[in-house]
């Protein structure tokens, strides 16, 4: 169940970070705060989708 919830949580985080970045582009919030948050959210989303079904050997 964790493998299903984690990517959805990161997608939600990406949407929130995108909204914050829009506020940053309107100069409500500084861009040097919103851009790293957006980068980390996109990175974690891609990382969580890419490492879902990795073969980890026989256990």
Overall description:
It is built from 2 helices and no strands. The protein has 59 residues and is mainly alpha-helical. Helix content is 75%, strand content 0%. Helix 1 runs antiparallel to helix 2 (31-50). It comes from Virgibacillus salarius. Keywords: Membrane, Transmembrane, Transmembrane helix. The chain crosses the membrane at residues 7-25, 31-50. This is Membrane protein YizD.
The gist of it:
This protein has 59 residues and is mostly helical.
Work out the strand percent: under 5%
Q: What would you report as the Rg, rounded to the nearest angstrom?
A: 15 Å
Number of helices: 2
- What is the percent of helical residues? over 70%
Cα(first) to Cα(last) distance is: 20 Å
Major sheet description: none
Would you count the extended β strands for me? 0
Protein name: Membrane protein YizD
Transmembrane segments: 7-25, 31-50
Organism: Virgibacillus salarius
Keywords: Membrane, Transmembrane, Transmembrane helix
Question: What order do the helices and strands come in, and which of them pair?
Answer:
Layout: H1 2-25, H2 31-50
């Amino acid at each position: 169940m964790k493998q299903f919830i984690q990517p959805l949580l990161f997608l939600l985080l990406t949407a929130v970070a995108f909204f914050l970045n829009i506020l940053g582009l309107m100069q409500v919030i500084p861009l040097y705060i919103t851009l790293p948050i957006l980068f980390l959210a996109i990175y974690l989303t891609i990382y969580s989708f890419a490492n879902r079904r990795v073969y980890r050997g026989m256990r």
